[in-house]
Amino acid sequence: MSADEETPDVDEPVPCTVCRGTGTLISNLGGSPNNVTCAWCEGTGTFIPDHDAQAAGRALRGEAPTESDAA
Fold it and tell me: Which of 25, 45, 46, 64 could form a disulfide with 21 if both were Cys (CB 3.0 to 4.6 A apart)?
């Protein structure tokens, strides 16, 4: 690697690609648009490695955890 190339900062947060770093999404469920918290970043706006966006919904419905929930 040459001295001119920058090394990426591993501690710098990566924006969530689903909500584009805003932490919210627009849901049209129910017929009218509503702002909802992004399940993929939990509203933080930053990428969460190995995060299961559906785990919270399963817990609210009382469903058994899956193998990916144990991670």
Answer: 45
10 pLDDT tier (thresholds 50, 70, 90): low
Q: Work out the widest C-alpha separation in the chain, in whole angstroms.
A: 55
Backbone angles phi and psi of 21, in degrees to 5: 80, 5
CA–CA dist 41, 19 (Å, integer) = 8
Sequence-ordered list of residues with C-beta below 8 angstroms from that of 42, at least 6 positions apart, any chain:
48, 51
Phi, psi at 34, each rounded to 5° = -135, 140
What separation in angstroms does the CA of 69 have from each of 22, 37, 52, 57? 25, 20, 7, 12
Is residue 50 within 8 A of residue 66, CB to CB? The reply is no
